[in-house]
Amino acid sequence: MDMQPIAARPGNHNLANYEEKRASFDWEEVKKNFSWYETGKVNVAYETIDRHAENPDKKNQPALIYSAPDREEVLTFDQLKKASNQFANVLKDHGIEKGDRVFLFMPRSPEFYASFFGILKVGAIAGPLFEAFMEQAVRDRLEDSEATMLITTPDLLYRVPENELPNLKKIVLVGDSEKISERYINYYKETEQASEEFDIEWVDLEDGMLLHYTSGSTGKPKGVYHVHNAMIQHYATGDWVIDLKEDDIYWCTADPGWVTGTSYGIFAPWLHGVTNVIRGGRFTPESWYGTIDKHNVTVWYSAPTAFRKLVSSGVDVIKQFDLSSLRHVMSVGEPLNPEVITWGMKALNLRIHDTWWMTETGGMLIVNYPSMDIRPGSMGKPIPGVEAAIVDDQGNELPPNQMGNLAIKQGWPSMMRAIWKNPGKYESYFINGWYVSGDSAYMDEDGYFWFQGRLDDVINTSGERVGPFEVESKLIEHPAVAEAGVIGKPDPERGEIIKAFITLNDGYEANDELLEDIRVFVKTGLSAHAAPREIEVKDTIPKTRSGKIMRRLLKSWELGLPTGDTSTLEE
Ligand code: 6R9
């Protein structure tokens, strides 16, 4: 879809003049917003929670609004400070020290966030896991990180292979359990008795804060290691990109098992002291629109997979809700289909702003600003303080409009500092002073970046390179198609042919005529060489828990190959 740029809506945007800011930018400027700039005492938990709790004007403001089908709860900054202090005391009593790895394996809940900050307050490193992980996934991560403590719920405990984890000394159970021994700690009993005062462990900006495991295409998941210094970027992007204002009600839909759920579900909003909505429970269009309506959400950060579900659920549902509180909407995790942007303009009367970054980069790098024209399909431009380019395999910069490796000049605050116990892997990200992302993209002559695919997903058909995203975006413009995943299938003649897996919208039935219609639709709408030669209708498209289409898995299934690590596959 060739779409006209969408001009910025007038308004009081935090970053009004992007080009000017970029030209004169110095990270030192951002550092002045932190109390450690004056005091020299660093801990991200202090900056996010305690600092606001110490401010008489803010202490009784809701920090966290927890909303789940069976539970509603509000915690003010003061309450969250006290709850996390209590948990920090419990951790300390049980011997947890600076640098220890403490993992969280439980659904989003007020206890999750209190525990998370408790971990940071003692100077330990937090490792959040998706609650849906099964035994193997839990074992891999606890084993590799040599975690000494795990916080979980009694009903998830059966997925923790305790006997095979010699480093795991203690397990905190959030909920009632029969298990009583030296090894198990009852969250409620012990926090209830703990003091609400705690002396925060002051750390260095370069001390460990988080371990996020991400799956590669092969091998075991790798532990991406982040330090407190990342807060500088979380703060800056919360300001410029999320455009947070003091009285915003913010909702990031991501689970903290995914980096989006920590960097932008925890740090950025609370560094800015805004009210943060946390939703538990499963996705339905009604419950999502209902969350915005009920809590008057003003700023919303979500992912293409969710937006696509909302698009295909139609306009009748949306009409039952009042979404007029929304001011600003963003997306991350996968390329944002132009179709979805069009829907946003119609259904929400708002632009959806795409943002690009990775677990490894710790924070947003290439984004669309509220103050900037959006070119639908483009992920935008680099933030101030960040230099991005397209490079070849030797790390040489390529001219505009040429597809290559999306790369970032080393040295931004939220960059990972290591791959846990794997220095070789860490080194392999860098060429010639560039961090090479593994994504392929091009930059147009005006400096907008356009995503093409993960490098291993790019298709080469009869010598033409085709990004699967382009084809998928065109496919979902067809009225029958709900979701699409596109792969290259080896072909003796063409190198690869394009094969599309699709799911159909309600009311459509798979038959040859429909599939041919879809093929012709892509051919006439995009190009002949991008039209899928094979289309297969599925019930679902395999996705990661963060909503990424698992093209690698589609390909393995297609070719009958081993599926590799599937621990992040959504059920
Ligand atoms: C934050 C996050 C990183 C990979 C990245 C890229 C894809 C993320 C995107 C995007 C196109 C965007 N990705 N944002 N692709 N447009 N706006 O997603 O981290 O889970 O580590 O994934 O996700 O392929 O390399 P992570």
TrEMBL record:
InterPro entries: AMP-bd_C, AMP-bd_C_sf, AMP-binding_CS, AMP-dep_synth/lig_dom, ANL_N_sf. The gene is acsA. The keyword Iron does not apply. The keyword Methyltransferase does not apply. This is acetate--CoA ligase. Gene3D superfamilies: 3.30.300.30, N-terminal domain of ligase-like. It is an enzyme of class 6 (ligase). Keywords: Acetylation, ATP-binding, Ligase, Nucleotide-binding. GO terms for biological process: acetyl-CoA biosynthetic process.
